[in-house]
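Case study.
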Amino acid sequence: MNTYVSDAVIRRLPRYRRYLLKLKKQGITRISSKELGEIMDVTASQIRQDLNHFGGFGQQGYGYSVEDLIERLEDIMGINKSYKVGVIGCGRLGQSMINYLKQDPSYKIVALCDNRPDMIGTEIDGIKVDDKATFQKKMKTDFDILILTLPAANIEGLEEDLKDSKIKGIWNFSMTEIDVKGIHTSNVHLFDSLYSLSYYINHPE
Amino acid sequence: MNTYVSDAVIRRLPRYRRYLLKLKKQGITRISSKELGEIMDVTASQIRQDLNHFGGFGQQGYGYSVEDLIERLEDIMGINKSYKVGVIGCGRLGQSMINYLKQDPSYKIVALCDNRPDMIGTEIDGIKVDDKATFQKKMKTDFDILILTLPAANIEGLEEDLKDSKIKGIWNFSMTEIDVKGIHTSNVHLFDSLYSLSYYINHPE
DNA sequence: TAGATTGTTAATCGATTAACAATC
DNA sequence: TAGATTGTTAATCGATTAACAATC
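After joint prediction, the assembly is written out as follows.
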């Protein structure tokens, strides 16, 4: 519907989906914004407002179809499409991401990279770990999303490689903030949430 | 200064610290809100407003001392204190968290737990992996922060154990949302950021 | 001192909530 | 039909930005 939707709304969409998936699992087929709001601890108004950025998915007097709404949300986020994914950094964090992604058919890992000699050439889940040069070539055309699960120290030169690639998005766990024109980047700073948690521990109530 | 500070502000504090640490590393000793704002891509006004929730750390006509400000931020967040940490779930994700935390002297891991027979009794970084019963006992008194890096399916019964523990905070990667009265929880849903990234990939500016 | 930059108040902007007519 | 609940507009609330006097 609307062309621009604020980031605050976009970031709430995955959470709506999670709760709806849970409801679906419980066999619940329809839900009102009021009920959903109570479960999620948000206002019914916010839910309706958020959803109506993308069109009217509900039905007056009835509410929303759980299954239908999940599908709509997935369409909006584009998470039921098919993405080809490359991963740089096959340490523990990288491996755990590879492992989780295996469960999601939309994100298909097609290439891995690591700079440790004892890792190069080995296979993880049937995919060979490339050295830098080999991976760089693949980067140009082979995938849409790049996952960075390597230490910040090792990302040097990466921005240059990105410029003539087809990569559209970077999921970045490298503890840096990458900003390449034309490529969407989600900079995940895992420890930030531990630090804000620490704040709240020290400032009870 | 102020008693209540909004969550939006608290979540920005770790990012300020990250940039300031980088500046310190570069040998820069002082900075104005204007310069810092340019580097971080936020307004100078927001920086000053944010910091002044906690007191005046700057000096008119001069700016802020980088080193001093880092220290103040760490004081505010309480991340230079000493925390004892327990970890449930020693798979790849758990191990990578253990590994990262090793580098931070403030968060000391004192107990590990896993339910896989072949893991129990082994050591990770010199700490033995407990079975559930052993860990439950330790939970009562031995640590302040609990890290959950296990599948959601396995957290059943946990809330009960938490109630008579001394745990003050939970850093939760289990893909559920835990809500125990009196315990601060940071529910990290790693995949949410991949999904919102996907949205942006599909909605290019 | 003059210039720079803070701390802080006031103005603006945007996001959230409330309200209600439309309608299933 | 009557009741329920949406979609949407209007009101409120809070967060961000601008402005400027205080002051180093």
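Observations recorded in class. Residues 6, 8-9, 43-46, 49, 59-62 of chain A lie near DNA strand C (CB under 10 Å from a C1'). Chain A has two domains: 7-76, 83-191. We will return to this complex in the next lecture.
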